[in-house]
Amino acid sequence: EGPEVADISTLYKHTGMFTYDPGFVATASCRSAITYIDGDKGILRYRGYPIEQLAKEASFIEVAYLLIYGELPTAVELTKFESTIRHHTMIKETLKNFFDGFQYDAHPMGIMVGVVGSLSAFYHDSLDINNPRHREISAHRLIAKMPTIAAASYKHNVGEPIVYPRNDLDYCENFLHMMFSNPCEEYTPDPVAVKAINTLFILHADHEQNASTSTVRLSGSSQANPFACIAAGIASLWGPSHGGANEAVLDMLNEIGDVSQIDKYIAKAKDKDDPFRLMGFGHRVYKNFDPRATLIREVCHEVLENMKDNDNPLFELALELEKVALEDEYFVERKLYPNVDFYSGIIYQALGIPTSMFTVMFAVARTVGWVAHWLEMMNDPEFRIGRPRQLYTGAPMRDYVPVAKR
Ligand code: ACO
C-alpha cells in the first residue's frame, strides 16, 4: 500500500540506500569520461585537456571530435570529420516549410525546440539506436544541422529568406554567413567575430551534468531517439537559470539603463524580499571563479575594442556593474562572480546578434556535449532507464467521497 507519509525507511528497504537531494547537488547520476570540473579550484577539462589550452589553440570542430571520440583528431581525421559535417549541413526542403508555420515573431528557441524535435520525422534511416552506425550518423547530422536551423530560426524572426550553408567556409564562419548574408549582400567573415564565436562555442560545448545535459541523458535513458532527446535538452537550456541567462543579462542591463542606477539594482539583488537577481553572477558548481568567464572576459574586451559599436553605453554599464559587484561584500561573501554568460551576452550584442538568439547560440555549441553524453550513455554497460524517486508529502490514505456528498 505504500507509506502514508514520507517514509525514508520504507524506500530504503527497497533500494538499500535512499537519499533526498533536491537539485541533485550531491548526487552523481552517471559515470562519465568526457568533462572534469573542480568547482572550488576553477578547473574545467575536456577529456583531460585544460579548457584554457583548447579555447586558445583549437577549432570548435576539433573540440567536437575530441568530445565525441575521446581523442584529439590527427590531421587526416580532422579533415575527414570536417568534410563529414559539411556533407550534412543542408536541411530538407520540406523541413523549410516548418518555419513558415511559426508565428512571424516567435522566439527562435521556441522554433528550435520544435524543428530539432521534428528531425526524427525526417531521418528514419538513422533512428535505430541499437545500431552504432545509426547513432554516429545522427550525431553528425545534429552537429551539422544545428547552425543551419539556428540561422533559419533567426531569418524567420526577421522576415528574411533562409540562407543556405556554404561548405567552403568553416563551421563558425558558415554560421555567421547564414545569419548575416542575404540575397542582396554577402557577409564577409570578420576574423575577430569568427575567433570570438569559435572561443564561445568551445567554452559552451560541454559542462558535465548540467540541467540540459541531464535532461538529454534522462530522455535518452528511455531509448528515445537522439533528435527527440536533443530537443528536450534545448527546452531545458532555455530557462533563465541556465542557458537563458545570457539573454537575461542583456534584459537586465537594459532595465538598469544607466551607470547611475547600479547601486539601486545591487541593493535589489541583495534584498531577500525582492526576487531580482543579478543575472550572469553566481554558479552552482564554480564557487571561486568560472574559468570560462576568465577566458571569455579577455575575448569580450578584444571584441569591444574592435567593433564599431564599442561606444554603446550598455558596454560601459556592464563593465561598471562587473567592477561594483566584484567589490561588494554580499557578492564576495557568497562567492558570486560573473559567469560565462555575463560576458557571452555582451559579446553577442557587440557582434550584432540579437538578444533572442543568445540562447540559440549556446544550444548550437552545447549540441556537441549533448551528443557526446548521449553516445557515451548508449555505450555504457551500466545503462538503464533513469527513474528518480521522491519523498511523498501529500495526504495520507483517505476514502473517495461521491461528488453529491462533498
Ligand atoms: N544575485 C543575487 N544573489 C544571488 C545570486 C545572484 N545572481 N545568485 C545567488 N545569490 C545568492 C542567493 O540569494 C543565496 O543567498 P543566501 O545564502 O543569503 O540565501 C546565495 O547567493 C546562494 O545562492 P543559491 O541560489 O543557493 O545558489 P545556487 O547554486 O542554487 O544557484 C545560480 C546558482 C542558479 C546560477 C544562481 O547563482 C543564479 O540564479 N544566478 C543568476 C542566473 C545565472 O546567471 N545563471 C547562469 C548560470 S551559468 C550557466 O548556465 C552556463
UniProtKB/TrEMBL annotation:
Active-site positions on this chain: H283, D341
Pfam families membership: Citrate_synt
Q: Which pathway, metabolic or otherwise, does it act in? A: Carbohydrate metabolism; tricarboxylic acid cycle; isocitrate from oxaloacetate: step 1/2
Record keywords: Transit peptide included? no
Q: Is Nucleotide-binding there in the keyword field? A: no
Q: Which residues form a coiled coil?
A: none
Q: Which reaction does it catalyse?
A: oxaloacetate + acetyl-CoA + H2O = citrate + CoA + H(+)
Against InterPro entries, the record matches this protein to: Citrate_synth-like_lrg_a-sub, Citrate_synth-like_sm_a-sub, Citrate_synthase, Citrate_synthase_AS, Citrate_synthase_bac-typ, Citrate_synthase_sf, Citrate_synthase_typ-I
As one GO molecular function, the record gives: citrate synthase activity
Q: Name one GO biological process term.
A: tricarboxylic acid cycle
* GO CC annotations on file: cytoplasm
Q: Which of UniProt's keywords are assigned here? A: Acyltransferase, Transferase, Tricarboxylic acid cycle
Domain of life according to the entry? Bacteria
Into which family does the record put it?
Answer: Belongs to the citrate synthase family.
What PANTHER family does this protein's entry cite? Answer: CITRATE SYNTHASE (PTHR42871:SF1)
What NCBIfam families does its record include? cit_synth_I, PRK05614.1
**What is the official name of this protein in its record?**
Citrate synthase
Instruction: Specify the species.
Output: Sedimenticola thiotaurini
